[in-house]
Amino acid sequence: MVLMGAIIGAHGIKGEVKVKSFAGTPAAIATYGALEDAKGRSFDLTLVGQASPGKGPGGKDVLIARIKGVGDRNAAEALKGVELYVARDRLPQIAGAEEFYLADLIGLTAFDQHGNAMGKVVAVENYGAGDVLSIEGGSPGAFDVAFTRALVPVVDVAGGRLELDLPDGFFDKPEGEPEEAGATLN
Length: 186
Hints:
mainly beta, five-stranded antiparallel β-sheet, 13 strands, 3% helix
């Protein structure tokens, strides 16, 4: 399943919701048929508009939608925070060799520039400043790296790998940080 969007709140009093779309073209979220949440509940979206920038959360990627079976504001508000997924096989095929879905990165083995395995990608997060790869299972332990061409110059989805070009000192502990996880400062 690929995360396509999230319900971020109610809109109006008739059960419409604000949906933040993660699709390349925001309105495409409604073209894949019914979406599902993590519990397997189905949501059939009909887009009715776009949120206005400057009036709360909004912008070109926030859409207004009706969901079949949701008829009032209380029902719409109860859906706030629901993430909407689509099955990977319902997405369009990738055309170019350097194109991929971020979900395709999960499970790839990360190697450093010398060919040493660093772990596997377990998640792709975005906290607002860009995509971040979470890597676990290698000798350096769990770590995150910004998903930029400078730090991740090679992505080979078909080969199941990506290459990291981390700067010297990437794993050095900042001065004054405890050496062990869970250590306390007195």
